[in-house]
Amino acid sequence: MYTKIFRAVIIGAPGSGKGTISTLICKNHGCVHISTGDILRQNIMKNTDLGKKAKQYIAEGQLVPDSIVTKTTLARITEVGNRSYILDGFPRNIAQAEALAAREQIDAVITLDIPHDVIIDRVRNRWIHAPSGRVYNIGFQDPKVPGRDDVTGEPLTQREDDKPEVVAKRLQLYDELMNPVIAWYEKKGLVANFKGKQTKEIWPRMELYLNDRINA
Ligand code: G5P
Ligand code: MG
């Protein structure tokens, strides 16, 4: 458990394992996982106003407009209150990074550096339980019953934006928009980069870093 509040951002390409690693961090250290992608997908499922606005952008691999996402994310951070959190999927550009900095003091920025060919393979095998955001992967993190969520038994689905042509667009957009964001956080001395091909290879290094960072 954290002995003080720890607010971190996790950055990585689509399919790099942000959701998987955030879940591990929160399970082991008791923080709240805030995933903007999960929030948007849950709103699409419930057909809310936000979901209706976001649906087409996500399906095409485009960013949902800043005005919508920033308001939603900051509202979620307010709900989380005085607790440690990992912010996954936000910020997505400099404007969002500035909006976050104006509101929150971020303690660390964790970046995941996974080769694109590894990512393309993973995304092909990804299945999700959209209502909860739980993620599975055939051959890596199989559900106990094929095609079913471990907790609810509900059917798993594939993401609309995991089609190969949309993944290619998302990867390109990531490089274009996120390299400047990472450089922006590097200037502030906040970035810890984790390079590798597998989550199990990255995780022990991440644990060492987190323990150091949290007890510093
Ligand atoms: P999201 O939802 O933020 P992305 O594209 O940033 O989407 P994504 O696809 O959710 O990121 P991830 O969370 O980095 O990927 O990866 P993951 O799900 O944990 O892992 C990928 C797969 O690999 C899983 O099946 C996992 O089980 C498996 N895996 C993990 N580790 C290993 C391993 O070691 N080995 C193997 N074999 N498999 C492994 O955003 C979606 C859309 O929402 C909008 C945008 O339209 C965006 O495109 N959006 C925003 N728009 C504007 N501003 C924002 N801030 C927005 N946030 C979201
Ligand atoms: Mg994710």
From TrEMBL:
In which organism is this protein found? Drosophila yakuba
Q: In its UniProt entry, what is this protein called?
A: GTP:AMP phosphotransferase, mitochondrial
Q: Name one Pfam family in it.
A: ADK
Q: Which residues bind AMP?
A: 36, 41, 62-64, 89-92, 96, 159, 170
> Which enzyme type, at the first EC level?
transferase
| Domain Adenylate kinase active site lid, residue spans | 126-161
Which proteins does it associate with, and in what oligomeric form? Monomer.
Catalysed reactions, semicolon-separated: a ribonucleoside 5'-triphosphate + AMP = a ribonucleoside 5'-diphosphate + ADP
Q: Which superkingdom heads the taxonomic lineage of this protein's source?
A: Eukaryota
